[in-house]
Prior knowledge:
Chains A, B: Residues 2-56 form the HTH lacI-type domain. Two copies of one chain form a homodimer. Chain A is an alpha/beta fold. Helices cover 42% and strands 16% of the residues of chain A. In chain A, the strands form three sheets. Chain A has a six-stranded parallel sheet with strand order 2-1-3-4-5-11, with helices on both faces. Chain A has a four-stranded parallel sheet with strand order 7-6-8-9, with helices on both faces. Chain A has a two-stranded antiparallel sheet with strand order 10-12. The radius of gyration of chain A is 26 Å and the shape is elongated.
Amino acid sequence: MATIKDVAKLAGVALSTASYALNGDSKVSAKTRAKVVEAARQLNYRKNGIAMDLKRSQTNTIALILTDMSGPYYSELIHSVQEVAISNGYDLIACSSMGGRDSTAVKFLREKRVDGAIVLASNINNEVLIEAAEQGFPIIVMDREINSDFLVSVLVDGEQGGYVATRYLIDHGHKRIAYISGPANSYDSQLRYQGYLRAMAEAGLEEQSKWRLNGNFVREGGYSATKMIIMQGELPSAIFYGNDEMAVGGVKAFQEQGISIPEQVSVIGFDDIQLSEYLSPSLTTIRQPMHEAGSLAAHLLFQRLSGADVNREYKLTIEMIERNSVRQL
Amino acid sequence: MATIKDVAKLAGVALSTASYALNGDSKVSAKTRAKVVEAARQLNYRKNGIAMDLKRSQTNTIALILTDMSGPYYSELIHSVQEVAISNGYDLIACSSMGGRDSTAVKFLREKRVDGAIVLASNINNEVLIEAAEQGFPIIVMDREINSDFLVSVLVDGEQGGYVATRYLIDHGHKRIAYISGPANSYDSQLRYQGYLRAMAEAGLEEQSKWRLNGNFVREGGYSATKMIIMQGELPSAIFYGNDEMAVGGVKAFQEQGISIPEQVSVIGFDDIQLSEYLSPSLTTIRQPMHEAGSLAAHLLFQRLSGADVNREYKLTIEMIERNSVRQL
DNA sequence: GTGAAAGCGCTAACAA
DNA sequence: TTGTTAGCGCTTTCAC
């Protein structure tokens, strides 16, 4: 591996001159520059980015931290963040937080291998975030409320989402409404559930405990929970799935039993994943404004990076996506 | 930002002792270690990973480079690579190659910000890869054949895939078969097309130029190409879409015109994206063994990293996924 | 068991 | 315009 030292030597100039030449500094003469560039070419010289970062004390890259880098659900988010990063002249990398404390994500956060981060990974606990964030190392958190300097939250109003979804069912004449939840410790799941409860209470409806099941936010969980409901004999008139993944599983369970949606049971989801539009019937759901959320998060990060002050918390509102899985009673 | 120097000073020990203590070296006494750890805690000391990487001349992380970090299609790949990375004690980051020469991906490759990379990004040209790869910096390429030291290819046999897909249609009695291609410069598209041609020729069938359209591998392209075919009046009996995304667009175009699949026209795709199973009718397609491919690529990378020799090229075979979009004539 | 010091490859202030 | 030099924060050899 040739270093800049080798290049300088071969070109017969000082180290600094080589550095200037290679970085396009205007104070080096065209002739010298040519010599240096030629030497670099000959040696197949490649700058060591790490050394540069160390010297500059900045990496010019930000990290997007996700539990699982690959969820289709993140697509929009990644795009919008990337767009903003590029337009600010920054690079973006994605890291996974799988593995918790020894995950890549935590390493990048703790060891400051990037200049800032956007986090959407519920398996990273508050403590890690609070410790990592500091002056000059802003973190934008997208999945929780958290109160600490150098940390800002960009949230989607899940309580409202849960309320709107449930309200939509009620307005369509449904009274016996089941809720399939995510993991018990999920902040998102709790909010949606609260919204559900609020709408139910407001309409004077009672939640039935046999119709509150856990599906862990995964397809398989939605499937099992739905099976359970079917086996109980009495079907609710509508089911609110805490996310679309579980709804997909639920739809499958109903199909297998020959129970038709929305004729025999109405279904509503949450997230508006890509699949939802293509299910049959297409899934009525709640869309989170992921593009806006990502864009906002990224903008805030760069504002913090440039020293500007921003609020502690931003809350975006959801959008109802009406399709064909809910029947008017 | 406290550095190790500050920690050493506060603990009243030498720099090196602090380093040893913090890294759990056995030669420092329990008492000294306690002092150091306490000082670090007080100062909220965080090791600077970049400095460490520079000193060690290695980062312990590998990069997975994708054109677009978010394609649902990559999900399996990412998982399998991550699994192998973790089991080798390495970290994984994903970078996008959007932006070509000034993309994050190229920067990470050229400036050796990682120890090695797996590349699946057709917008990065050979030259960049050849220049970047060298002794101690292995690159595994998943989307092309490329001949250079320090570069190894892991490929899925696209020609065979195209052949199998087309052959499947022919075996089901189809003779008038259209092919919707990806971008003209796409290596994958070309291979699939060649496989198509081989199967056609073998069966003594002629390709009709009016039924060879470009859909650029995107949904919208599949939609337009299909519209075009419909407008031409005479429908082929089957269409082979170069990938599932285009097939999804095509199915939509047919639905809009009230043309039913597979009764009036059969459809086959390529890739087996998540959606395919949920389309109605569910899409018959060709699955690429992405899990195996990712796993193999990662294993090879670590083998190269540890100095072992591996072959220049590995080729995996595809799998036929029979569903309901092709009719037996 | 602890400390002094060299140096990873680079940038940038300062001197010439 | 070019060269000399001091670090960035860390690990690690070597001497004590």
